[in-house]
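Hi, here's the filled form for the chain we discussed.

Project: internal
Contact: R.S.
Residues: 159
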Amino acid sequence: MIKSSKTELKIKAIENGTVIDHITANKSLHILKVLGLPDSETKNVTIAMNVSSNEIERKDILKIENRELDHKELNQVALIAPKATINIIRNFEPVKKDKIILPDKISSIIKCTNPKCITNNKNEPITPVFNVINKYPPVVRCHYCEKLIKTEDIEKQFE
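And the returned structure, exactly as it came back:
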């Protein structure tokens, strides 16, 4: 970090990688856990938590150096922080800016909370599939048993 004045603290820019902005306040650690960060290949991960924001009052920001998130990882982030934005950085410049969009159907990211659901059968492994009922806050329904899984239950799986 580079200190610029007594009232302002600036975070060093990254040359290449991903910046996740507008994360719901205090959710960045959940995102790091889901993405398996930090890891041996990621050079630097910078976290700013519970900072003031003009758009959403309080937010978190993640800077992940030398890593661009793939489609599945973006869906994982969308379940935790559905209003987040993604910036892909190359040569210190943002080359792509997008809002995260939770798709209408997700699979392999979370588990059904119904213990009797076929996806939880140890003898017959079936990939969990969920239909997104509400994008913000995220609410999904299991494709197999139709169990409704609310935001709190989704977040518990990432703790």
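Let me know if anything looks off before we file it.
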